[in-house]
Amino acid sequence: MTTQSDSTLPAPGTRSARKREAILAAATGVFLKSGYLGTNMDEIAALSHVSKQTVYKHFSSKEALFIEIVTGMTDITGDAVHDYFHPLGDNDDLAAYLEAYAYRQLSIVVTPRIMQLRRLVIGEVSRFPELARVLYEHGPGRALKILADLFQQLDAQGRLAIDDPVMAAEHFNWLVMSAPLNRAMLLGDDAIPGEAHLRRYAHEGVRVFLAAYGAR
Amino acid sequence: MTTQSDSTLPAPGTRSARKREAILAAATGVFLKSGYLGTNMDEIAALSHVSKQTVYKHFSSKEALFIEIVTGMTDITGDAVHDYFHPLGDNDDLAAYLEAYAYRQLSIVVTPRIMQLRRLVIGEVSRFPELARVLYEHGPGRALKILADLFQQLDAQGRLAIDDPVMAAEHFNWLVMSAPLNRAMLLGDDAIPGEAHLRRYAHEGVRVFLAAYGAR
DNA sequence: GGCTAGAACTAGACGGTACAGTACTACTCT
DNA sequence: AGAGTAGTACTGTACCGTCTAGTTCTAGCC
């Protein structure tokens, strides 16, 4: 699931690999701060304490470096949300289970770095449509698929009453995520709600969801 | 509510005013297509069949022109959503009323131009935080305020059962808007759902909302 | 350990291009 | 007549990607 600019990466731990990591780290910061066009390669070189030559030895162009960074962050974030996903046991409390899932997702996504990544990718949809598609599929798309499967199962078990699992997944996902996400997208990182608020969004979102889709 | 770059606008209908409109129209297209940094003033001048001198006679800088365009579009769109807002009569069907409101909002916002405006503003949050704040307040912020007031009234009338009107407004708003909005934000204008789909989002959103907040 | 060949890296200059905003002269609409 | 505009050259700056010459690291071998 990882993408790399070249077929050969330097062996980990070597000087080359360390430089490469330094470049990636610095470039990530600069791209997130200044956007694609607003970023210049001299600043990246300076910030990573590396010569521009070395930057171009590791990444063939500004565009390649940008793509590498965005896909990397996208992969890592998507994995973080779903890696700890454990199935629901027959005797587990459904509301608590959904709330825990909702809160984990919120607390990972509604984060300054990830919010800025979203802003960056959204701003570049026309220049890099493929990148935005990947972000959608590794983010909301993946979550929606998992939730739809889960809800279909729970419907079959009689624990939920669901006609259209995909619609239900969308409702669940956005009931929980939308309010804090959209606020933070436009109002900036200062508008990111604290932990208590996020827990409340998770709780109330699940409450509404179960009122509409709970087994009768 | 309208913003203007200078305190004096040319009298409408004059050559000056016509040129100004031509510049605004052309610049809108270019900014929406290429973003702030990706836009160049020569292209705007050429597209509006006007010399660069004239562009700078009407707008003091690229930044001023950009701000003018974004605030203008934001104002117009916010007004379009709420101008036709008529209050709910005592005997009107609540579900139908909410569905109509939801559909109107969807059909205005989930539109190539407005989606591209959102992408543009979101991508420039760090460069123009004030612009993003204005977009939030004239868009979601305004809608949330109106909905919260409405829900509070309906709760007092016993037609809804609502503890927290703001939370309810957020749930309503995003139940309806989020799925199509987020798809289109990242997947591009081709992913904008057709009318039938938008109606279904409005219908299902209202259904879930009423299941959770309907009077018992 | 010490030695060497080759790879990786540094520092900065440079070519080429793009572009915001200005200057200047001639034209044209009111 | 005179304000507004066209056309276009120009200034100054920014920046991607390359090049060059000199330096430092690394891996393998004695």
Q: Could you characterize what this model shows?
A:
2 copies of one chain form a homodimer. By secondary structure, chain A is mostly helical. Chain A has 2 domains: 46 residues, Orthogonal Bundle (Arc Repressor Mutant, subunit A), CATH 1.10.10.60; 144 residues, Orthogonal Bundle (Tetracycline Repressor, domain 2), CATH 1.10.357.10. Helix content of chain A is 73%, strand content 0%. Chain A has 9 helices and no strands. The first copy, chain A, is elongated and about 65 Å long. Chain A starts with 14 loop residues before the first helix and ends with a helix. The N terminus of chain A is likely disordered. Chains A and B meet through helix 1, helix 6, helix 7, helix 8 and helix 9 of A and helix 1, helix 6, helix 7, helix 8 and helix 9 of B. The structure holds a DNA duplex (30 and 30 nucleotides).
Give a brief description:
The structure is a homodimer of 216-residue chains. Chain A has 216 residues and is an all-alpha fold.
Largest sheet report of chain A:
none
Counting helices, strands and paired strands, the structural category of chain A is mainly alpha
Tell me the span between the first and last alpha carbons of chain A.
41 Å
Pair of chains with the largest interface and how many residues each contributes: A-B, 45 and 46 residues
- CATH top level of the largest domain in chain A is Mainly Alpha
Radius of gyration of chain A: 20 Å
List the total number of helices of chain A: 9
Outline of chain A: elongated
Q: What is the CATH H-level superfamily of the largest domain in chain A?
A: Tetracycline Repressor, domain 2
Give the domain tally of chain A. 2
The CATH topology of the largest domain in chain A turns out to be Tetracycline Repressor, domain 2
* CATH architecture name of the largest domain in chain A: Orthogonal Bundle
Oligomeric organization of the protein chains: homodimer
Please report which band the strand proportion of chain A falls in: under 5%, 5-15%, 15-25%, 25-35%, 35-45% or over 45%: under 5%
| Total number of beta strands of chain A | 0
Give, in order, the helices and strands of chain A: HHHHHHHHH
Helix fraction of chain A? over 70%
